[in-house]
Specification:
- By secondary structure, the chain is an alpha/beta fold.
- It has helices spanning about 60-75, 100-110, 120-135, 160-175, 190-200, 215-225, 330-355, 360-375, 380-395, 400-420, 435-440, and strands at about 1-5, 5-15, 15-20, 25-35, 45-50, 80-85, 90-100, 145-150, 180-185, 205-210, 230-240, 245-250, 255, 260-270, 275-280, 290-305, 310-320.
- Strands 1, 3, 11, 13, 14, 16 and 17 form a 7-stranded mixed β-sheet that branches. It has a 6-stranded mixed β-sheet with strand order 7-6-5-8-9-10, with helices on both faces. It has a 4-stranded antiparallel β-sheet with strand order 2-4-15-12.
- The two termini are about 45 Å apart.
């Protein structure tokens, strides 16, 4: 396995030197950064799964048609595209097809013929999209994704927790890797289910508040997918002698084998970073040590840039000395990411609490605002954006109806984005050049 050119790995420590006594909580960050590249991108396969239930009749469906045409016009002849529609019945008006000139023209005509129907069999549409996009063999660097859109509650077929369980089983049995991005429009969709689908399938949940935001949300998603730098990224954390990994913060999937942890990071877009914060426990030392190794870290991934499997190793160490007597909490890099993780957690708490205790949910958000304002990293760009998001969602908590129809959905999308360090149109953080470029294309 070659050394990685797609991603860079580095370690960030809470302190560079420590006293000799035992430490029960020592914070470390493994930072993974994707390379910026503008060379020829990998081929992409997209399945647009579109709600055509009766509630989509009128301006919503017309804007959705316009958005589908926008997606098709961004694809190259090496890319593949399909459309699955669902109401009570699931249909595939456009099977997975390479987007050459003839196929593009036929797809654009087909989109014009879409009509609204009856109920909402979301599960049937999603699973048909997954089947369609994973049925054929593909190049190893192909980026495959399902884009699932709905404006209401799933009221036919498998729904709720049962749907998520079936999705997990289905993902395990797929022939190839495929992410799922979910787009919930308006006030009636079930954000918990849409976020759960996205989380279990390596995608993101987009809350679309207005008709005008439909195209921008899809463009943001497409800009990311067209700039994938590395896929199936795994971070290995191996503690050294006298060191234990106590916990890994955030909500990335992680599992432990012996003392070693494996964290699954999914895909990274060009320019994106992932900061994995974890807590170590260190044994007492009897004498000074210039370099005590704490953790051996390693990234393994498939590079879309080089079309090869790559790896990158970094060891993290500190100096231990009896002369170190005072430790100050002045690490801004750690502080900003603790603010990020705590904000994501507080947003989730507020979303759940707001269902039955809106004043209590407001207190959670206002306390989060004060914590960031009083932190040592309060002037950092990320923290400034965290404050913007918190103030934004606080304005949608003035009454129960506004919270239920808007605020709760924003909180779900924002908290997901901050945990994953990935932009959606619901937050101004983590936006890459490619995402901005495709957002701007919707105004052309």
């Amino acid at each position: 396995m070659e050394k990685s050119v797609a991603v860079n790995l580095k370690g960030i420590k809470e302190h560079d030197e420590l006293p000799l006594e035992e430490h029960k909580e020592f914070y470390v960050i493994s930072s993974v950064e994707a390379a910026f590249y503008e060379t020829q991108r990998a081929p992409i396969e997209l399945a647009a799964v579109v709600d055509v239930s009766g509630s989509m009749e009128g301006p919503k469906l017309e804007l959705m048609k316009k958005t589908l045409k926008f997606l098709i016009n961004q694809l190259k002849k090496t890319d593949k595209f399909c459309i699955v529609t669902y109401d009570s019945t699931v249909k595939t008006p456009i099977a997975l097809t390479q987007m050459d000139k003839k196929a593009r023209e036929e797809a654009l005509k087909c989109i014009d013929s879409l009509r609204a129907g009856s109920c909402t069999n979301l599960c049937g549409g999603l699973f048909q999209g997954l089947d369609e996009i994973t049925k054929e063999e593909k190049a190893s660097n192909t980026v495959s994704s399902v884009l699932l859109m709905t404006d209401g509650l799933a009221n036919e077929g498998v729904v709720g927790e049962a749907l998520l369980k079936e999705l997990i089983t289905k993902k395990e049995n797929l022939k190839s890797n495929c992410t799922v991005f979910t787009f919930g429009f308006g006030s009636d969709h079930e954000e918990k289910m849409l976020r759960g689908i996205a989380e279990n399938a390596g995608g993101m949940y987009y809350y679309i508040e207005t008709l005008e935001a439909i195209a921008e949300s899809y463009a943001d998603c497409l800009g990311g997918l067209l700039s994938v730098a590395a896929q199936n990224i795994k971070l290995k954390l191996e503690p050294c002698e006298g060191v234990e990994i106590k916990k890994i913060l955030g909500n990335f999937k992680a599992h432990q084998t012996g003392k070693t942890w494996i964290v699954e990071l999914g895909d990274l877009y060009s320019e994106e970073t992932r900061e994995i914060v974890y807590v170590l426990a260190l044994d007492k030392q009897e004498k000074d040590i210039d370099h005590q190794d704490l953790v051996h870290t390693e990234i393994e991934c498939f590079s879309v840039i080089s079309n090869k499997f790559e790896s990158h190793k970094v060891s993290i160490s500190v100096r231990r000395s009896k002369d170190v007597t005072e430790l100050k909490r002045n690490n801004k890099e750690l502080d900003r990411h603790m603010n990020r993780l705590l904000t994501a957690s507080d947003m989730e708490k507020a979303q759940e609490l707001g269902k039955t205790d809106l004043p209590g949910a407001i207190k959670v958000i206002e306390a989060a605002i004060e914590r960031i304002k009083n932190s040592i990293s309060s002037d950092d760009e990320l923290c400034v954006n965290l404050l913007k998001d918190l103030h934004n969602v606080r304005s949608d908590m003035e009454n129960q109806q506004r919270f239920t129809t808007i605020g709760s959905k924003k909180l779900s999308s924002m908290s997901h984005g901050h945990y994953m360090q990935r932009a959606t149109t619901n937050s101004s953080s983590y936006v890459t050049k490619q995402k901005m470029a495709y957002r701007s294309k919707t105004n052309e």
